[in-house]
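Okay, can you check this protein?
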Amino acid sequence: MRGEQKDNQKFDDNTVAREIMEWIVSIIVAVALVLVIHNYIGQLVRVDGASMQPTLYTDQRVLVTKIPYWNDENIERGDIVITKFPGSRENFVKRIIALPGDRIRVTDGVLYINDIVIDEPYIKETMYSDYTETTVPEGYYFVMGDNRNNSKDSRSSAVGALPREMIQGRAYAILWPFVDFKVIEHKEYTELN
């Protein structure tokens, strides 16, 4: 009888140890999957601020996909992206306006890329201030908010053109609130083709 109790106790100890080990392995795998998805596939980002109005509004949740940007050639003018700014850990939502090597300027509220006027039906209102012509350096991208008169973006000397590694991914869809759900349209600058 006593020997049976010892055998049962060994069985119970082994079962508990095995179950704890299975839980630990499951948690490690789950954390690894979350990190891989977040860093390489996509994430959900909350819009904070008015800089992308009327395209995006504060408190909307946007699904950001990183897969298209595994190849830098897929970054296009007009893409709405999630990016970092120099010296900041925050995410910012902006629109890619100019690519490496592009010349960009704003004159009398009109955007010019490589001396071609760009049609921007998505902006909130005409820009109040001009921006002196500059050439986007290789490996860098020029971003702006759609609410041009209320946007901290590449026009600011504190931000400037952004290096590729600061661009986190492309905004794909508004997921929340549900009444705002839609796939996000990215403007194609056909004037430059």
Remarks:
- The CA atoms of residues 105 and 133 lie 4 Å apart.
- The longest helix spans residues 2-41.
